Amino acid sequence: MDSISTKNATVFFNSEVYTALNNYLKTDKPSKIFILVDTNTHDYCLPAFLERIESGDIVIEVMEIPNGEDHKTIDICTGVWEALSEYNADRKSLLINLGGGVVTDLGGFVASTYMRGIAYINIPTTLLAMVDASVGGKTGVDLGALKNQIGIINEGVMVGVDTSYLDTLPQNEMVSGFAEMLKHGLIYDKTYWSTLTHLEKLDISDLDQLIYDSIIIKNEVVTSDPTEKGLRKILNFGHTLGHAIESYFLENADKTPLLHGEAIAIGMLLESYLSTKICGLSQEEFEIISSGILKTFSKVEINKNDQKVIIDLLQYDKKNSYGVVKFVLLEAIGKPKTDCVVHNDLILEAFDYYAH
């Protein structure tokens, strides 16, 4: 597969990942290489990765963090910054983030802020990270249960998408990543959406191309609007309510935490319903969206008390301005509309629809 040029970096695929990475190490000659992993990627991905890189005389240090969204915190960042300092990382050091979205988001933020910025490379190992965190340079951590409240937009020097790492994933993690791919179809390409919702006509060999197409869509959006002043906002479809739902289930001890994609699937369903009320999304297309999402994602119980707290959490959404919550909705599949204002009574109506 051909590489994809982003605004400031390049995304390489499969075998080309290691050719490009090794060329970079020979040419740029970092003073030290630091590899950030979590508990899972340390065991399942790091050995294969180390076999493929040619570091020569450059010292490699591995730093491990706990896995899971609840560890995407400033406290974990502090531990990584301290480790970098302890191992004498300087401004010519390189940080390689080998993991899912938590590792790439947190690692990118650590690299962007350590000594006012060192080079970093993302090697995403989950489907979600490949199609979402791989492009765009968004880095950051959560503030308590509030998603990605602290961060910076700063691209790494390279991204390496090696789909063989997907063999290490449990099924629910693959499904979680699939939600972001569905989103790319809904906001940008009706044909791509249709392909994703008819996977029975495909086989596993088609997955690489679908991932590639998803990254192409995200890159086209991000390249035209790197700092999210306009078009890039469409990537937030499903995320206004989805992030609030994810935060609520994460911080509530009585709830089983949802994976990111599971929460975003609920958000996309709810926001598609809102689209029929506000943006003229046809009932026919809404039913296509609903059945397409529910083919893969089971419904989750969200009671009346849950709904009130989730709506209260919307005030912390990063897209808000002047205290007004702004949604991305759909006029049609592949035709999003940004900066939509939605009243709470309609949100409650959407929850009622979802519950039945």
UniProtKB/TrEMBL annotation:
Keywords: Cobalt, Lyase, Metal-binding, NAD, Nucleotide-binding, Zinc
Pfam family, one: DHQ_synthase
Domain 3-dehydroquinate synthase C-terminal: 177-320
UniProt domain 3-dehydroquinate synthase N-terminal: residue ranges: 63-175
This protein's record includes keyword Nucleotide-binding: yes
Function according to Swiss-Prot or TrEMBL: Catalyzes the conversion of 3-deoxy-D-arabino-heptulosonate 7-phosphate (DAHP) to dehydroquinate (DHQ).
Annotated PANTHER family: 3-DEHYDROQUINATE SYNTHASE
This protein's name: 3-dehydroquinate synthase
Native organism: Winogradskyella damuponensis
